[in-house]
Amino acid sequence: MRIGEVARRSGISARMLRHYDSVGLVPPTGRTAAGYREYSEADLQRLFHVESLRSLGLSLVEVQRALDDPAFAPSDVVDRLVTATRERIAREEELLHRLQRVRSSGPERWADALHVVSLMRELQSGDPSRRQTSALSTAGSGPSHRAATLAEALLAETDPNVAGALRWAVERSDAADEALAVLVPALDSPEGPVRRRAVATIAELAGDRAGAVLTGALDHTDQAVRHTAALALGTRGELGAVPVLTEMVVGGHLDVDAAETLGSLARRHDTAGSLAGEIAEEIRKRRAGSAARIRLAQALGELPAAATRPILDTLSRGADADVARIATYLLQLSDEQG
């Protein structure tokens, strides 16, 4: 079969067939009387093998080795091709993500679209200082879609200084709903650091929607998410945070912050009496000498003295020496302060 017919039947151009011949990959084994290339059935079979291997991404050198070198290990090449394909897919997904972000920003001019792309590129820089500078330079300015771009960068950021700058920029963007659209789904991320960056940022956002998200997070399975939400809600004056704040005191996780927040809530809502009673009940549940009893007793010191005095008086005469010592000290401190 001559080269023109092979080209027609195989769909491979005559120019490529000549190239295969010149590099020794598929040289036709015959020639016509006029000197034209003539391909045998074996040549055609080799040609189709070449095309099949090239469709997997092998270079011509690798194809030739695969066909001619008995020691050639296809598994090594396939492994490399798998890695290369995954990297290419990742690049394509990143490009798709950029295009979707530009589209969602609704740019009316090319300058707007290019600004979004420039911001995304700066926030993906390998230099933490560039990422931080970019975050700080965008805070409080520009269209609302920027908040979503900043929030996405924040969730992926591992440098604590850059993450802090991004969190500050998101908070100052005055576009909480756009940021929440990115941050709320991240609360269910399989990666703990991503969940914690998300809730820490939501805690900085103002508005009823952010508050509702934090309230829902009080039941989160991730302790860090639950506790960050409780502290934020307590600062906002939400009594619904009290059970989790008490849990924090008992468990010793940010217990000082939790106790201070409980005290602030008690004074704000005039609930010191009931809150002191709840803490006293928690103390009663714990075994004598436990660290949790000590932390709970110390937390009573954050509440107004008038509400805690009867409880402290009882604890000061109890059998738990450590708790009695703390209760006695708090009573003395109350007397000194009048």
UniProtKB/TrEMBL annotation:
InterPro entries (alphabetical): ARM-like, ARM-type_fold, DNA-bd_dom_put_sf, MerR-type_HTH_dom, MerR_fam, PBS_lyase_HEAT
Question: GO molecular-function annotation terms?
Answer: DNA binding; DNA-binding transcription factor activity
Domain HTH merR-type: residue ranges: 1-69
Q: Positions of the region Disordered?
A: 123-144
Q: SMART domains recorded for this chain?
A: EZ_HEAT, HTH_MERR
The superkingdom listed in its UniProt entry is Bacteria
Polar residues compositional bias, start-end = 131-141
Q: Which UniProt keywords apply?
A: DNA-binding
* PROSITE patterns assigned: HTH_MERR_1 (PS00552), HTH_MERR_2 (PS50937)
Q: Which Pfam families does its entry note?
A: HEAT_2 (PF13646), MerR_1 (PF13411)
Q: What is this protein called?
A: DNA-binding transcriptional MerR regulator
Q: What is the lineage of its organism?
A: Bacteria, Bacillati, Actinomycetota, Actinomycetes, Pseudonocardiales
